[in-house]
Amino acid sequence: MKNYRLDKGSKAHFSSLEELAKGFNVKIVPKQTKDKLKLAKQRVNFVKHCKHCGIVMTYLSDSNLVVCKNSKCKGEPHELKDREGNVIDVIFKPVFRMLDDEGTMIAANLFAEV
Ligand SMILES: [Zn+2]
């Protein structure tokens, strides 16, 4: 039982389970399935396909962004109009999706390398 306790003079303070695991040198296991095929399916379902070119989008690790990495994809068309409402020009915006806190947590688990 002595191995599981901190030293007598230690003033370590842990405010989360992740910190506690780090303090005790316990490896954090990501919450993902061990079935490789199922994992690949889950990843594709999570990032989805680009609306404009149809290629599977890519999650940028350690971020909250899912982007289209196809260099030939023009992106999302956006019409520029003048005051009368006539279309002057069409510009293309890059295709990306921002994840919220929950989505980022799911992505970190799904795309973690075990
Ligand atoms: Zn695209």
Describe the model.
- The protein has 114 residues and is an alpha+beta fold.
- The protein has a domain at 34-110.
- The protein is built from 3 helices and 5 strands.
- It has helices at 17-23, 36-47, 101-110, and strands at 58-59, 65-67, 76-81, 87-93, 96-98.
- The protein has a 3-stranded antiparallel sheet with strand order 1-2-5, with no helix packed on it.
- It is elongated, with a radius of gyration of 22 Å.
- The chain starts with 16 loop residues before the first helix and ends with a helix.
- The model has no long low-confidence stretch (mean pLDDT 87).
- The structure holds zinc ion.
Given as residue ranges, the uncertain stretches (5+ residues, pLDDT < 50) are: none
Proportion of β residues? Answer: 15-25%
Give the % helix: 25-40%
**Count of helices?**
3
Nearest-angstrom radius of gyration? Answer: 22 Å
State the distance separating the first and last CA atoms.
30 Å
Q: Which structural category fits the helices and strands?
A: alpha+beta
Q: Look at the structure and give the mean pLDDT.
A: 87
Bound molecules: zinc ion
Count of DSSP E strands?
A: 5
Largest sheet: 3 strands, antiparallel
Order of helices and strands: HHEEEEEH
- Widest sheet, order of strands: 1-2-5
Which word captures the global form? elongated
